[in-house]
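Purpose: get a first structural picture of the assembly so the mutagenesis plan has something to point at.
Setup: two entries, given in the order below. No constraints added.
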Amino acid sequence: MANVITPVLTKGIGELNLRDIKVYQEQGGYEQLRRAVKDMAPREVADICNASNLRGRGGAGFPTGRKWSFLPLNGRPRYMVCNCDEAEPGTFKDHMLLEETPHQIIEGILIGAYAIGCDHAYIYIRGEFKRGYEIMRDAVQQARDAGFIGANVAGSGKKLEFTIHRGAGAYICGEETGLLNSLEGKRGEPRLKPPFPAIKGLYGEPTVVNNVETLAYLPHILRNGADWFAKVGPERSPGYKVVSVSGHVVKPGNYEVPLGTTIRQLIYDCAGGLRPGRTFMGVQPGGGSSACLFEEHLDVSYDFDSVTKAGSMLGSGAMVVFDDTTDFVKAAYALIRFFAHESCGQCTPCREGGHWIEQMLARLLAGGGLDSDIDVIKSAAHQLTGLNLCALGDSIEPFLASVITRHEDQFRAYVRRAPQTAAAG
Amino acid sequence: MSAHVDGAAGIQPLPSPGGSAGAGGGEWSPYVVRPDSAFDALYARLLPQIQPLVAQYEQKRSALIPLAHLFQEHEGYVSADAQAAIAYLVGEPPAVVESTISFYTLLFRNPVGKYMVQICRNLSCILNGADDIMAYARQQLGVAHLETTDDGVISYEEVECLAACDRAPCAQVNLEFVYDLTRESVDAMIAAIRAGNYPVAPLPQTVKPGRTWKVEADTGRKSAGAMGVQQPNNAGGVGDASGMIMFDLIVGKPQYEQRSNERLLRETNLRPQPAENGHH
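Result (structure tokens, whole complex):
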């Protein structure tokens, strides 16, 4: 059982105090940064990343090497920004990596910064992660004292500066242009794209925004070679992934597995399966923004392309599992309320659509809903998609549409339910 | 890269009213307001922290949110004076500072309790019984979402996913995580806070908080849908779907016990319609 679990980023967590730079270095930490800045040209590091076929672990799954390749050769300053604004419902991998292995993240960021020819890297940490921020601050100080951050990285004569920026509570700052606005001291409202950050990012200069987990794999890919990563799992979607499994499972937690592991293995072998006597009703495979998958999808390979083909997305790698006690109306309401609350308000379909669907579901749950509400919800949901500056508006619909299609009876049952009396609640 | 921090090292104590605003923000003007002189002591005390905070960015406006965090850590909220000081430091009008701060849920523009209890209301926590925990906490505290207890000690908020779904239902108390909530652990938490021996430090409280520190829709992300739930003539408080009454704009009493379908229908802007009007 559980033999699919392959600790790479998560190796040593729970056993070693990896927050201590000495312990991290005993495990081979910072050797790859030293090797990169001393023995390799930035181009070589980027080529290895490209050859590994590493795809972004934050949600969109865009090939990291290609993202880097969009930077123009215009002699302007460049920025590397690490996105640690993890707030996708169901996702808690970056939270763990931040608190448990801060040096691995720093090394990954610095290697990435070196590879793209940038000398000032930023990490944007979610405001709620106050403890994680303090841990990162201490780790950065240790790394600075050890000579891995500053004007002369690992004695190479090269400069790499590092700034930690703490957010203040806004899901939308996980969107890369919203994050950059927030980092510039503005409201975290996403920007119109193009231009993409690679052309005009932080302070208007070429910028790469990568997820924590993506960058944390870089030291391992340098150490073991591009093939080590590229040969694991499906060819177009290779490597390892930390998957956050929660909801109705016996052992919720973060499980690092090769992509291509099945959803069934993740739920039953890793997370201990469902509670005794319960049956499987569905799983949200990629965070709050992803459509629900059902029994027939249990043997779908968990990788970017297969999950997309099954009608959902791998997203941030967060599985929320539902058993037969689930009220999908309440589940949908919790997520729609979230998106309505977190909409930045710039685009009308997202700002208005989210709130109106939230209110219709609210009325349904309160016992005052109409059959026509469900038809309106069904027609409204897909009118939100593709009409917004960023993906938040597009994220409102998938889960709701998937469960209302599959379990319309649950929604209709609320219509027929007698309205609550004043005393009930 | 050469434009490293315009004048961060030159940040000085606040100049006197009427004089030049100096390196931070040009002349004092209707748009650059000097904080009240009562604020000068705190400002001077924090100067050693303000300087490196501004200096770590290549453009000083990036320091806006870190500065707001800093002042909030000392005043308990980002006061109007603090906002004016931030405006001076980053060289933007106070309106820009307030607009920015209002976007972020962790920055308070009004005083809050010494303990900010924030329970997660998102999916994984709901699946693990957060609804019951939240209802219980509201009842035990005698407050609704976004309200502070009458003694000004505990502020209560229901928040979105805290990224601790493996230990659901979860919460944060002054941003320290609390996991695997039960009714018993909620009781224990409240008792410890009231007894003054809760293992998390209280927030500073320079001003006694009012009943609420913001309204639900007041996240700086206005919406017609959201505006519908806070009509100014609606003196009885407003409700959300879980039946709780979220705040009370005029009367100072929590309304959480008044959960009626009629209220909800009235307050969500959705009234029963004939079926044929379902589409427009």
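Confidence is low (pLDDT under 50) at residues 1-7, 21-25, 223-280 of chain B.
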